[in-house]
């Protein structure tokens, strides 16, 4: 019978489980995001660099195709920790841009329209809500970060053979682990910014600006105080230091990887506190 | 039967201020399809109580249980059985009603296909069928209220908490909203908690009423019983010689007090109906000019509970209470 004819009936059937409910918000959010042309364009653009890296790996195993470079080709076309570090650096920037455009549309409308009581009056906790929203960003950022990273690693392993894989499996783990940390940090920054300002455009600008502002502030503090520890306040730089340690590369000058990791941990904790304070179903004025 | 709401010395603090100061009561019965009215002046603690029942505020002492589940420790069980219509704007302006309801339905635990069906069904039910694909931001205030009601009942909850559902509605929309609330309890067996400033709305819909004042229960009344009792209290106005009326009433087992000028206050025994009064009036050749049950009991109850002096006919309404019963 047509819906408009049968009238309202109370639903008495079985309810879905907790895990199904956890994926409700991401499912609808992905659908909306993929309908936005700008996000789709950014998504495609972010895949150019991984494609270039794949070509790089291919040529590193087919040096005979690069006779124009002479003997220098074998020095240039090396797939090692430095190669993956450069790859991660470029893709981390793509992740920032994507999260700046995709992130604020997740939380800001809920807060701006006061929709949180509708969500939280259902079997959905604040933590579940944050995880749901983080899943959305993880789903958007994964195809431009750790998934192409692992594909490149697999491609190199396939072309270089088992010996190379056994010697460098740590690079694959570093790519995956490093990007997981980056996705966590970027998602929390995007969500905290949109929870704080509640206006999508401003929140997006704030996400982009935060990385540059913190980077500039860190350099300024280093120059004024004649120290180098302030570099740890720059999330991008700190993450680079951690990645270099994970990839087994020489560290950058300044605070070491552990100090940077502690700084990043404090940033994550701070962002979690902001989200906890802002994502409340009701404002309490005491 | 499990009570719908059970409060056991419930205390809630917001910051350093204690809002609910040891509230204890048992309201409603699970599955009975009854409505509970929550009344009280501003700042009495009504909203805090509702938000505590939804698990938004943590009790500082005591406990609150909804349908037998602890609101704090078992909030997931409570929330999957409760529908909530907030007082404030809560709908996402850029989203269509169907999409919003579908998301909220799925969050309540409806399977995806069922949620889509129910979203359409409930939007037709509340009269938004034609506007269901329009962005919610384009809705009028009345339509938004209906959409909020729709999202509260999409998953068929056992208890629906309505916070000021008739706020900003014109008389026709208000009547429709109250009709829907009545249907919810009578046809669908849902229990309803209605928080309103409009005494008439509460009186029309609710079977039980709790009046809060300064964070404590000032009065708890069973309106159904009041109504039944009121049916026994009759005000009669007659023209003609009513000298024998008192004796005739006593013959029927009724008690009557003559207030002068042909006005009588009569208490009927349960087995005696109004037709008996008509028969007595006919026998005594009296012209009945007015015959009414006692009314406005809720207003009286409310005014007594909040400490205002009961109004007498012609006297101005006490401060803070308009003549239409609105606070």
Give short descriptive properties of this protein.
heterodimer, A: 286 residues, 0% strand, B: 327 residues, alpha/beta, Alpha-Beta Plaits, 6-stranded mixed β-sheet, 11 helices, 14 strands, 33% helix
Task: Please specify the SSE layout and strand pairing.
The complex is a heterodimer of chains A (about 290) and B (about 325).
Chain A: H1 3-6, H2 18-22, H3 24-34, H4 37-45, H5 48-60, H6 72-76, H7 81-102, H8 104-112, H9 116-120, H10 126-141, H11 146-160, H12 162-197, H13 200-225, H14 235-247, H15 257-278
Helix pairs in contact in A: 3-10, 4-7, 5-11, 7-12, 7-13, 7-14, 8-12, 8-13, 10-12, 11-12, 12-13, 12-14, 12-15, 14-15
Chain B: E1 5-14, E2 17-27, E3 35-39, H1 46-53, E4 61-66, E5 69-70, H2 75-79, E6 82-85, H3 97-107, H4 112-125, H5 141-153, E7 159-163, H6 171-186, E8 191-195, H7 199-205, E9 208-213, E10 216-222, H8 223-230, E11 233-239, H9 245-251, E12 255-260, E13 263-267, H10 274-283, E14 287-293, H11 297-305
Parallel strand pairs in B: 3-8, 3-9, 6-7, 7-8
Antiparallel strand pairs in B: 1-2, 1-4, 4-5, 9-10, 11-13, 11-14, 12-13
Helix pairs in contact in B: 3-4, 4-5
């Amino acid at each position: 019978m047509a819906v408009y004819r049968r009238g309202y009936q109370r639903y008495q059937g079985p309810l879905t489980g907790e895990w199904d409910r956890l994926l409700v918000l991401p499912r609808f959010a992905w659908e909306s995001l993929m309908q936005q042309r700008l996000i789709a364009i950014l998504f495609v653009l972010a895949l150019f660099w991984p494609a270039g890296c794949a070509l790089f790996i291919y040529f590193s195993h087919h040096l005979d195709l690069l006779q124009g470079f002479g003997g220098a080709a074998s020095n240039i076309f090396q797939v090692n920790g430095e190669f993956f570090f450069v790859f991660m650096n470029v893709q981390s920037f793509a992740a920032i841009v994507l999260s700046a455009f995709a992130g604020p549309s997740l939380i800001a409308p809920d807060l701006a329209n006061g929709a949180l009581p509708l969500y939280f009056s259902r079997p959905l906790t604040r933590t579940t809500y944050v995880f749901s929203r983080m899943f959305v960003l993880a789903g958007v950022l994964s195809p431009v970060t750790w998934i192409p990273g692992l594909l490149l690693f697999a491609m190199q392993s396939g072309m270089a053979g088992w010996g190379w894989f056994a010697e460098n499996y740590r690079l694959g783990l570093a790519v995956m682990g490093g990007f997981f940390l980056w996705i966590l940090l970027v998602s929390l920054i995007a969500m905290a910014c949109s929870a704080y300002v509640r206006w999508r455009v401003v929140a997006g600008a704030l996400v982009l600006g935060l990385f540059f502002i913190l980077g500039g502030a860190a350099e300024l503090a280093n120059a004024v105080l004649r120290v180098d520890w302030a570099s740890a306040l720059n999330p991008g730089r700190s993450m680079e230091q951690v990645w270099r340690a994970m990839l087994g590369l020489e560290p950058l000058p300044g605070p070491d990887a552990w100090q940077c990791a502690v700084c990043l941990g404090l940033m994550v904790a701070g962002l979690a506190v902001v989200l906890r304070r802002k994502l409340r179903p009701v404002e309490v004025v005491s | 039967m499990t009570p719908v709401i059970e409060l056991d010395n419930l205390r809630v603090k917001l910051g350093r201020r204690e809002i609910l100061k040891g509230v204890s009561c048992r309201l409603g019965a699970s599955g009975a399809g009854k409505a509970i009215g929550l009344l009280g002046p501003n700042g009495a603690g009504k909203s805090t109580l509702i938000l505590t029942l939804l698990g938004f505020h943590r009790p500082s002492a005591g406990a609150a249980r909804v349908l037998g589940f602890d609101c704090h420790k078992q909030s997931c069980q409570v929330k999957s059985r409760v529908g909530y219509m907030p007082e404030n704007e809560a709908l996402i302006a850029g989203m269509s009603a169907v999409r919003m309801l579908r998301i909220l339905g799925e969050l309540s635990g409806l399977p995806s296909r069922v949620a889509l069906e129910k979203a359409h069904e409930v939007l037709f039910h509340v009269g938004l069928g034609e506007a269901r694909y329009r962005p919610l931001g384009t809705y009028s205030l009345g339509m938004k209220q209906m959409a909020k009601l729709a999202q509260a009942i999409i998953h068929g909850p056992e208890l629906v908490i309505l916070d000021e559902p008739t706020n900003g509605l014109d008389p026709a929309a208000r009547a429709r909203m109250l009709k829907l609330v009545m249907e919810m309890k009578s046809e669908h067996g849902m229990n309803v908690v209605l928080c309103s400033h409009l005494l008439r709305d509460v009186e029309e819909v609710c079977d039980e009423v709790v009046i809060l004042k300064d964070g404590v229960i000032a009065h708890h009344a069973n309106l159904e019983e009041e109504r039944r009792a009121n049916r026994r209290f009759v005000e009669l106005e007659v023209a003609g010689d009513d000298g024998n009326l008192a004796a005739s009433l006593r013959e029927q087992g009724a008690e009557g007090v003559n207030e002068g000028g042909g006005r009588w206050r009569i208490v009927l025994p349960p087995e005696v109906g109004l037709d008996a009064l008509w028969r007595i009036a006919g026998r005594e050749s009296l012209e009945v000019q007015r015959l009414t049950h006692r009314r406005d009991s809720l207003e009286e109850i409310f005014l007594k509970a909040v400490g205002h002096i009961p109004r007498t006919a012609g006297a101005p309404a006490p401060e803070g209470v308009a003549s239409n019963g609105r606070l």
